[in-house]
């Protein structure tokens, strides 16, 4: 597999981008990781790679965004959209404007919709497919909000009435907690931890997480190692490899699959807003990426 390259016409002129994270109101913190705002300024576009992640609601209030999933062409990001769980990293471009995002916890998915998560995994769809008419109403409220505090208040006001019964969410949170535990290394071990058979866990994960247990465990292992290696001194990432990898070559193969490039290429390239996102998210939540955040948020 070769490293992903951004076409010259896309990467020709880089704009500037900034990202901020904000906690939702306490009643939403079991369902939502954070709200976040990505602001792009200047001519041209900003190009970066978003991490494998859980589902997100996104509202493009101004400007335009495109996304390129592994093996696919560039496509427009819906103005009011939902991205399901991402197994692998996705390249994105954004032009001058503002995007507002809502990151979901895995247990947040069944708190907002009865739709099976696997039907949304690795794809972008209109948010109305999840929230119905409320999706466009929220988008309109955000576009008319005069400032950031008003946008956050609009989300805090609009989202709680959409929450459903949390009975499914409790089981998802328990499975999510087990996934976060580095001692859980196999599908059989994960299934045993949550009191399911491996086949039951397979159905459960597809229904609520969007991906199979094996792929979730592999993704978790790569991102756990990525978090450690980003904090390592220059040139020291090879000492950060999770002990679940057989050797360095095994890790590099897995990293290429999930991130689309080698660890060396990833660490060497510019990260116009995801580098900042990493630091800001870690400062607010302790977890630098959505997939590494425990199932219960701050003060939930």
State the low-pLDDT regions, or none. Answer: 1-12
Overall number of domains = 2
So, CATH architecture of the largest domain?
Sandwich
Q: Span between N and C termini?
A: 42 Å
Shape: globular
- Give me the strand/helix succession: HEEEEEEEHEHHHHHHHHHH
Helix count equals: 12
**CATH class descriptor name of the largest domain:** Mainly Beta
pLDDT averaged over residues: 90
Query: In which range does the helix fraction lie?
Result: 25-40%
Largest sheet: 8 strands, antiparallel
**What integer value in Å does the Rg equal?**
19 Å
- Quote the CATH topology of the largest domain: Jelly Rolls
What oligomeric state is this?
Answer: single chain
Number of strands: 8
Category by helix and strand content: alpha+beta
Any overview of this molecule?
The chain has 300 residues and is α+β, with helices and mostly antiparallel strands. The protein folds into 2 domains: 152 residues, Jelly Rolls (Sandwich); 102 residues, Arc Repressor Mutant, subunit A (Orthogonal Bundle). Helices cover 39% and strands 20% of the residues. The chain has 12 helices and 8 strands. Strands 1, 2, 3, 4, 5, 6, 7 and 8 form an 8-stranded antiparallel β-sheet that branches. Strand 4 and strand 5 form a beta hairpin. The protein is globular, with a radius of gyration of 19 Å.
